[in-house]
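Field: COMPLEX_INPUT
Field: COMPONENT_COUNT = three
Field: RESIDUE_TOTAL = 672
Field: MODE = joint
Values follow.
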Amino acid sequence: MITLTELKSILADSRPRRLEELAREAYRVKLQYFGRTISLYAPLYLSNYCSSHCTYCGFHSHHRIKRHKLSDEEIHREMAHVAKTGIENILLLTGESYQVTPVSYLKEAVGIAKNYFSSISLEVHPMDVDEYRELYLAGADGVAVYQETYDRKRYAEVHLSGQKRDFDYRFETPERIAKSGIRNISLGILLGLSDIAEDVFELYSHLQGMEKHFPAVEYSVSFPRLRTIKGLGFEPSHTDDVTFVKLICLTRILFPRVGINLSTRESPKLRDHLLDLGVTKISAASQTAVGGYTSEEPDKLDPQFDVQDERSVEEIIKMLKAKNYDPILTDWRTIPATFS
Amino acid sequence: MKIIMNGKIKSIKDKKNLKSLIAEFCRDSNHVIAELNNVIIKRDHWDKAELKSGDTLELINFVGGG
Amino acid sequence: MKTQQQTTLSETPFVMGGKEFKSRFLLGTGKFKNKTDLAESILSSGTQIVTVALRRIDLERHEENILEYIPKETTLLVNTSGARNADEAVRIARLAKEAGYGNWIKIEVINDSKYLLPDNAETIKAAAMLSQEGFIVLPYMYPDLNVARELVKAGAVSIMPLGSLIGSNQGLKTKEFIQILINEIDLPIIVDAGVGRPSQACEAMEMGASAVLANTAVATAGNPATIAKAFARAIEAGRLAFLSKLPVEKNMANPSSPLTGFLFEQ
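Field: COMPLEX_OUTPUT
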């Protein structure tokens, strides 16, 4: 496994030739282990109520935005809209509120999702093993939980209140998810909070530890790049495109079978190029505001982040086919194990 | 009534038997393997297998593999 | 006394599960970019056994069924991929049998997503259960002689040791241990996983393997039908090389000491 020094040196190396070598290796590994398949998914925000104060996030508890939580009827409407585009893989998101969106609400949402999608993932507040197990039995097959930053000091600086302040509880969440039976776990860091090399190094260590203790789980990683959000007063440190590309390449090379997710935060041009360099799962036609897919007044909503790639699912599929990629809408479709 | 078919909740007409359901949902019934509530249903019994609300049905076929 | 003559090994037929096969090349059908490539690869290589897997039908997109691209005479070897333990492997095997395409099962029990290494212990369990139910069992395993012996006892009709990690194209990293299996186990040894080049398949055959399975190397090649043919020919070449190596034991006083055999000639 790469050392922190090696990682820092790769990130500091500004020679275009070295970057190209890295990219070639990433391309080769990607082709060998994933062939030409790219999975598609869409995010669906159920609620933006949040009880944690994360200074970098548009949904944080102290930010004055219009709060909304989808009713059952609205969930049906939103999901039907996304399902019509052909997406089979839905990622359900909420702000972190244990009161407004407790497990019972999430279970209900997963239950509704089963009418529309064959794969259901969650990106919600960290929970206990039994709660994850309830969601697993209700039909959730994946969970994403990002540590945001592995630097404890920085973590405390940007997470001012709420359950999220508990660094260890969050850090141990992937383990609890694995113990519940869920077999797809996504880890990640937010680029823009701390020193990139150190955070990436810690992420790799976290991932390796999980692989070692829970080898049956399928892992993936994400590297969302933070951007300034109006009215927050938080300035993320900038991660340039070259560094971002290097991270994707390195991750692909070091973890040949781990998935790499990329959201519509990034531009079409960058996303298209990153497909060759290791990205395996991308979102399409995303709406990042609660009720964003079917709202009659989308401009009045508060998105979690601004979408840069606004292409429709159809356009994305067309692009993938033009680049000789095989768009996968339903992952694997393995026959499920009978619950014992 | 609602059943769970290949992991998704589906609304189907009451009094449907497995044979007509498969004919409705699968392009080619020939290569389909059916497992209803964890029991494999033989092809010549499909017309006798009646679906109940809440049933779990897996419709399976061959795909490429190593 | 008959004169000692160096003669080649005579070819023994490749028989498994009561069937005789002319081709010693098995083809995996996963990862093909399109199905016509698969059909052409089967034709060009002359393979008589292909592996397939079982999955839920995609009810929204009506894909063509892979069986339409596999000739009727080809033996279908259904792998239990997705199974993480013996019980799951048995369930998949029973589903496959229900489909009515024979009962040839490649036992593949993997619960490690990092290396995709097979679980030998669960494989032995599955082999025993499935042979009892009348399946023709070909277990995919990590080359371990003790495990191979258990698999023989469990009723397997051949042993499929991995050459290297699935998809790695690294060839015969486990060469020494495959050789041990070839030497000690009386069942056909079919080298599977990691065979990336025809030359590696040839090497396996030269060692005395009975057959070779390749998938990734063919499916992801620029021209699958051509490389499939190359594999078939390399496997034939390797087999001939193996047959030309050793003297046949035929009424010889002491074949292992040819230098002093002359002392005992009459």
